[in-house]
Amino acid sequence: DGNVSILSPSSPLTAVENIITGLYTFRWTISNGACTSSTDDVQVNVSIPPSAANAGNDLQICQQTNNGMIQLNASTPTNGTGEWLWVSGNTPNVIITDSRNPKTTVSGLGYGKHIFSWVVKGGATCPVSADEMSITISLPANAGQDKNLCNLTATTLRGNTGSMGRWTQVSGPTATIVQIPAGNPNANISSLQANATYIFRYTIDAIGD
User: What was the pLDDT predicted at 161?
Assistant: First the structure.
């Protein structure tokens, strides 16, 4: 750049002014009378640091009212470019519609908490700026249809597929409930008595920070 100013060109240690973003080459030359001059070059790569990343507020959504598409709301960077990354969650097939769009939509999120990171990159020599936000998907509990059993003392109850909850007995003679592992939406019920009516309840706890 023609506006670059070397403040002390004869000094081995000098300040340089009026440099902007870009790659510069400076040459240090030593001359000593009749001897051949000696030169050495140094490159200076000047980059603009990225804007501070802002991923927006955390979201909590009930899947019952969710249409499958959830909009993210990061701030558009003044300097640099941003990109959405999926960090964690229980669904490996999350779809980010346009990872470069701060207001993109995402889909394919399963039950539970998902972490997304908005990463803003500036020049090649500057560290990135990143900010995380979470999307928590809650499910309305569904215990399935009522059962009429004939001459059976055991059955299996099935809650929402993909959910984590707990089965409890509300009424009827004492029965045995086995959920393995804990949180499994399916439970084995045994010790049922004939000519008895039972009510079992499936509960999904609210999820939050």
Answer: 81
Q: What is the pLDDT of residues 89-132, one digit of tens each?
A: 877 689 999 999 999 999 988 878 899 999 999 887 889 999 99
Pairing of strands 129-138, 112-121: antiparallel
Could you write out the DSSP letters of every residue in 58-114?
Answer: -EEEETTT--SEEE--PPPPSSSEEEEEEEE-S-TT-EES-TT-TT-EEE---SEEE
- For the chain, what percent of residues have pLDDT higher than 70? 95
d(CA 172, CA 192): 9
Question: Of the candidates 135, 136, 134, 133, which has an alpha carbon nearest to the alpha carbon of residue 55?
Answer: 133
For residue 41, which amino acid is it? D
Put residue 34 in one of left, alpha, beta given phi > 0 → left and psi -120 to 50 → alpha. Answer: alpha
Exposure string of 164-182, with b = 16+ CB inside 10 Å and e = fewer, is: bbbbeeeeeeebeeebeee
pTM: 0.62
